[in-house]
Structures are given as C-alpha cells and as structure tokens.
Amino acid sequence: MSQVFSEETHRNLLARIPQCTGREVADWLRTVEEGPALCFEERLSWLRHEHNLAYGHAKAIIHEYDLRRAARKLL
Q: Taxonomically, which superkingdom (predicted)?
C-alpha cells in the first residue's frame, strides 16, 4: 500500500527535486508525459528504476503530473 503525503510534504518534495536530481520539475513532468502509459504504481516503479529516483521524489512527480492532468481536463 502506498504512503499518503500531506499537501505540505508534497510541496516540500517538489521544491527539493531540482536540487536532488539536477532537473527541474517541468522536465520530470515531460518525462512522465512522454513515458509509457502505465497506472500510478507502475509509473512510480518505472521512474524509480529507469531514472534512479527516490521513492518520495518519484511519487511527488507522478502525483503532480496527475493533478495537472486533472486540472487540464476541467478547463
């Protein structure tokens, strides 16, 4: 079962991603967009193994991607 992060923890993780990975969040969101069409947990595993990301960072990126995709659908 996946861990649920608070909104504050999510924002803190996103803020640290550029420093920890050397890439901006927008770059990671493009990577997810261009990557394989998988469910959340599979994308999480894919990011962790293919791009050597920590669990928290991978989860924050995918969660942010899903939030932004949902927001686009509302427009």
A: Bacteria
